[in-house]
Amino acid sequence: MEGAWVHRILWVVVAVAFVAGLVVPDGSSEGEQPGECQPRDTRVVAPYAVTGYWVMPRADACVTRRMVEAIHAIGGDTLVTFGPRFSVGGDADGCLLDGRPCAEVPGKKIRQVYTYATSEEFGAGVLRCPGVDRRIVSEGRIFYRVSLAASCDDRVHDLVLVSTDGDGLGNLMAEAAAYGMVVFPGLPAAAQTAGKPWEPDHAHTAALNAFTARVLADYRARFGGSAAFAGVYQSFELAMRARADKDPIIELYAAQNAVAASALPGKKILVSPYIDARRGRGFPPEQVEEGMADIAATRAGAPMAIAVQDGRGTGKVPVHGGNERDSPVEARLVPVVGAVSYGQGYYGSTRDYIEAAARKVPSGVELWVNVEGFEPTPAGGECGRVDPMPLRGRTTKSRLDRQVMAAGTHARKIISYGWDPFFTCQARYDTPSLADDIVNGWQQPIIVNATRKDMNGRAGVLVEGYNLRGGTLRFDPQGVEVKQEWYGRDRLESAWAPYVPTGPWTSITATNDAGQSSTSPYAMP
User: Fold this and answer.
1) How far is Cα 70 from Cα 175, in angstroms, rounded to an integer?
2) Considering the domain boundaries, does residue 106 fall inside one?
3) pLDDT-based confidence at 289, cuts 50/70/90?
4) CATH of the domain at 419
5) In the 8-state DSSP scheme, what is residue 317?
6) One domain, residues 467 and 428
7) Residue 32's pLDDT band (cuts 50, 70, 90)
8) Which of 91, 302, 332, 437 is the one with CA 20 to 30 A from 17?
9) Is there a single domain that holds both residue 291 and residue 386?
10) Residue 16 burial class via C-beta count within 10 angstroms: exposed 0-12, middle 13-18, buried 19 and up
11) C-alpha span between 489 and 474 (Å, rounded)
12) How many CB atoms lie within 10 A of CB 525?
């Protein structure tokens, strides 16, 4: 999910037009006066199957309100942020105290300096050692100097110099609470090993854990009474596959998650591991169960949600149906695996990996799915991420629907990376964003599963998904259209029709009472 860079970037907000209005250069929405935000609109007008998104905290309270409102309007109830990188060395640029660099403390020897660039303002609880720990305003900017020493009286100290652009996390928590939503702030992201950025540098894990404990104690003091504070997100990324007995990322998870479990009893730890189905570079679905068990073992007694990255955005995993294995890969996947068939390029589809994960979900763990809301590479004339590398393109709602279909019935919750810029960007001001397309097409059915099921002594087919109510179910290639006779709603909607498939594969098209239709690529054998 490319978390190694994302915490450094402050994207310009482009809010969904139907809710947010035009964003003007000072960061406020049209019609808003400086220091005064427009009233909240708490309606959910276009509830979609994806209910959580990664977001960037915003220092501007009004921009934050518009962003949260736009996500809430399409059914979002969960917000996730990346944790900033806990970086080794350097100084907080521009931080001066009494004319000296902030890393200089009279009467103390400074052994190691860490830097931490964030979008939050800590409370007084993060400052523990008088004379060493300080909140500093330098040239109009806010900094914190935090000692990691075991005792404030120690002569030798390690310091963390924190710089912030404002209280973006505080704004996000306040707006989430007002909209009845929850937030998972990112844990401080571990320092990376030189030459191996995919591995944590364990020479600094003790310092990371000490700082993490201070940050979470501050969260407990500031947000502990808010229903919006649901838990924390483990920002360091890993693959959900079989791993060595002594794995550096699992060791990091065990150490830092233990700090989180101790500091925030009962709060959930969210992890989002990736899967990679590419032949020769990735791993088969059979390794997923072991990888999931290894991650679950690091939860230190805390409840955990494992949100598996579905892999379609990066092109590492396809979302083809079970009868499409010999079909050519989609054009957007060719730059990743070449002009081959799905079976030649990949060990399996997203659905194969999610089903493997669902076979044995560890105790204390919920299985979520993170659908990647972007394309592996940009196409001409579309918006997306153009900097930093790698380049990514804007996807479509129809492809996002297929990713939801691929998650099947197994996901307790479906979330997506990431809101900005992939759901909000526009190729031109007069073209809709992906979020706009969701608003315009949210009533379209999404079939996630179909099974043979008898009802009241009659044979038939039970279809599960979203927006199925009313209308008909069409079964192809037989060309039979049957009116629904039963409709139910639980976590997913379900519809039943008295039909017995006669062919080897049956494609199902649902048409609901809103007159919207869609076909599942997951044909029923």
Assistant:
1) 12
2) no
3) very high
4) 3.20.20.80
5) S
6) no
7) low
8) 332
9) yes
10) buried
11) 20
12) 10
Q: Please report which helix (H) or strand (E) contains residue 454, including its range.
A: none
Under 8 Å between Cβ of 231 and 267:
yes
Count the alpha carbons within 13 Å of 289 in the hemisphere toward its beta carbon. 8
Residues 264 and 311: their CA atoms lie apart, in Å, by 31
pTM of the model as a whole: 0.92
Which pLDDT tens digit goes with each residue over 352-369? Answer: 999 999 999 999 999 999
- Do residues 510 and 522 touch, judged by C-beta distance below 8 A? no
pLDDT tens for 317-341 read 999 987 899 999 999 999 999 999 9
- Inter-residue contact 413 to 78 (CB < 8 Å): yes
Element at 270 (helix H, strand E): strand 268-271
| For residue 19, pLDDT beyond 50 | no
Q: Considering the domain boundaries, does residue 35 fall inside one?
A: yes
CA-based Rg of the chain, rounded to a whole angstrom? 24
Q: Which of 391, 407, 441 is the last residue of a domain?
A: 441
Is 60 exceeded by the pLDDT of residue 27?
A: no
Of 101, 132, 154, 109, nearest to 214 (Cα)? 132
Evaluate whether 31 touches 143 at the Cβ level (below 8 Å): no
Task: Pick the closest to residue 504 from 471, 467, 478, 470 (CA basis).
Answer: 478
How far is Cα 372 from Cα 315, in angstroms, rounded to an integer? 10
| Host H or E run for residue 481 | strand 480-483
525 is a domain residue = no
